[in-house]
Every structure is written in C-alpha cells, then in structure tokens.
Amino acid sequence: MQTVTIREAKARLNALVDAAERGEQVVLMRGSRLVAAIVPVSAEDLELAPRLTDPQAERLWSLIAAERANGANLTFEGPAEAVAHLGSAPRGPGPRRSSPPRRRGARSRR
After folding, report:
1. Residues 59 and 91: beta-carbon distance below 8 Å
2. Which domain holds residue 64?
3. How would residue 90 be classed by pLDDT, with cut points 50, 70 and 90?
4. Which helix (H) or strand (E) covers residue 5, if one does?
C-alpha cells in the first residue's frame, strides 16, 4: 500500500492508477489526514441496480402477488432478466393515459 499527498497524486496520477490495476491500494492524504483511496475495481464490484419506472414496479408487484396466490414464484438470475420478463408480461388493468403527457412549457397546438 502506498500513501501519497494529493499534490503528489496529481503529479503521478497515471502511475498510481497503473498501480491500482496491478492490485495495489493507494491512500491519499490531505496534510496528515487520510482522506481517500485509489483501489483496484472489477466489473463485479460495480454491479449497478437498474431503475424501474413506476408502471414497471406496479407490474412487478402485481405479478408477485399473483404468483404468491397461485403458489408459483419466478426466480431470475439477475435484474436484466427480471426487467426483460416484465417487458414481455401482459399488461393488467390499470390507469391508462389517453394521450402522452405534455412537457412543461409545451404549448397546445389548438
């Protein structure tokens, strides 16, 4: 593990990132205080959770409730598979808009 000041890190950033790629940790200091670290990262470390829209979340919860009632729950290997399933699921009854929502400040064409 290396410990460097922020000033030194600015001057040697490429070398410090190379060190992190090799698996080393680099700790940054502001004066005598430890303030941050440059650490190796892999794709598995950065699993990002997908965001569901409100209609997708409503469909998800209604599907879960129906599956629980029928005694058949689905299990997905990951969030992308679950979102794909929601996209292919038949839409249940729910509020529907007769026209797309208008953007703020949009003028009517009447």
Report:
1. yes
2. 54-88
3. low
4. strand 2-5
